[in-house]
Amino acid sequence: MGMKLVxxxxxxxxxxxxxxxxxxxPKADIVVFERGKNVSFSNCALPYYLGGVVEQSDDLILMTPxxxxxxxxxxxxxxxxxxxxxxxxxxxxxRDLASGETFEEPYDKLMLSPGASPIMPRSIAxxxxxxxxxxxxVGDVVAIKQCIxxxxxxxxxxxxxxxxxxxxxxxxxxxxxxxxEGMDQVLAPFDYDMVQILHKELDDNGVELHLSxxxxxxxxxxxxxxxxxxxxxxxxxxxxxxxGVAPETELAADAGLEIGQARGxxxxxxxxxxxxxxxxxxxxxxxxxxxxxRWGRLALAGPAQRQARAAADHxxxxxxxxxxxxxxxxxxxxxxxxxxxGLSEKAAKAAGYxxxxxxxxxxxxxxIMPGSHYMASKLVFEVPTGKILGAQAIGAGEVxxxxxxxxxxxxxxxxxxDLKDLxxxxxxxxxxxxxxxxxxxxxxxxVLAGRMPQVHVSEVRALVEEGAYIVDVREEGEFAxxxxxxxxxxxxxxxxxxxGEIPRDVPVYLHCRSSQRSYYALCxxxxxxxxxxxxxxxxxLGISLYEYFNDKALxxxxxxxxxNCN
Length: 566
Prior knowledge:
Elements: E1 4-8, H1 12-24, E2 29-34, H2 46-50, H3 65-72, E3 75-78, E4 80-86, E5 91-96, E6 102-106, E7 109-112, E8 116-118, E9 132-134, H4 138-148, E10 153-157, H5 161-172, E11 176-180, H6 192-204, E12 208-210, E13 214-218, E14 222-227, E15 230-235, E16 238-241, E17 245-247, H7 250-254, E18 265-266, E19 278-280, E20 285-289, E21 294-296, H8 301-315, E22 328-333, E23 336-342, H9 345-350, E24 355-360, E25 375-382, E26 388-395, H10 399-411, H11 416-420, H12 436-448, E27 454-455, H13 460-465, E28 469-472, H14 476-480, E29 488-489, E30 508-511, H15 516-527, E31 533-536, H16 539-554
Parallel strand pairs: 1-2, 1-7, 2-3, 7-19, 9-16, 10-11, 10-16, 11-12, 18-20, 27-31, 28-29, 28-30, 30-31
Antiparallel strand pairs: 4-5, 5-6, 8-17, 13-14, 14-15, 20-21, 22-23, 23-26, 24-25, 25-26
Helix pairs in contact: 1-8, 6-16
């Protein structure tokens, strides 16, 4: 008989530990206790059952206790809740939820993977109503589906990844959907300038977006929210809470295991808790943010699987490498894909970095190819080292591919010089010869070297309102279809013959549609003696996307005569 491993929690981290241990030790005695009805289900796919992408709830269940026993000789027991860890005698106390029986199970090594629970604030009046749901397991989405099939309007509370995916899927099946978020933007890992594209996409597809709105009560008529303008009622017949999760640490704390400063179970480099025979992985632990250089928590399936593999390796005497996390995520929002990795600008600022960023809108494939579209790309880098800190991308194409490339560079400590010279696959149907990520690095290198002074899209409204001298170098027809109010149209094709119109004694701000032609104009003017010119990062496409949603939502005066968002 080999090692006796007891695993608490039968989803990503727990089952990955058990499966890895079986591969390493065919003789190990492995027991998995899961409080719920199912193990090894696709929790990341749960929202897609609501929209019919996953047609049957049983399709969400990847393995059953019986199949795990047959294929891997794992003793998996569902509806069994571990109520105590008895470290002095190396047992756990278990309650069989079906029979009510309580028993003790011994262990040599213990793995904690209890996950995290959806936050359901008791301060919200009506939080216990029968039409209020959370999304954690298969049973949750089955209950939501049964309810929403009978209603027309749904409020989704929380603009994180789960909230967005739930809102999209409910809208897809014809529900009236209100998305309520307490911050001034959805998707906190993205910067404010980038997320405006996603605000527009949600709004364009009929999702009622309520930002800077905090839920105070849930009643018969809907959800009461507190906003900067006062209280408001958001009509809804069902409410789905997706404001975040809290790590399940009660079992560990009761056993005297150390809880970390990020409120997760504290683990060391090998994913051991303060008891060397007890390990922990997944949503319940705190782990190291490799870029911000602090402890944090990351509720993602990929890192949980890697943690589980490392922990099982260590139990079997194999060396473990723990690099912490950088945080890479992606999702789809209707017709836009979005991905991010590493630090956003606001996260870089919070971590104390000296940093800058570039925002550009290159084509994701050769323009004459079917399906070619802009890809909004943001690269955040350290100043003056050029070390890549993070990236974000949004578009109709393969943003995950581009961000994965940059995630690799971040993990390897790469710089914009490394990214600039990276050799990537190219064919017209897939990309451009100078891929989006190479393009971003080239622009960042110009900014870092001082060859391209820039202003960000977030600064343009103030420039327009103060009457700054802005030159639009697009062609006259493009200018006529929409432009910044007060801008001077001097097309790039006419620039050399019209330099006398460009002042030298005040700052001059150049833009085109996506910043490429305005960069050519900037190079010409700087080479001809103008030292007062700057490029507007993102140009008119970026400005339009940045301004559109807030103009509509706030009813404010646009700074453009018309938008160009395509």
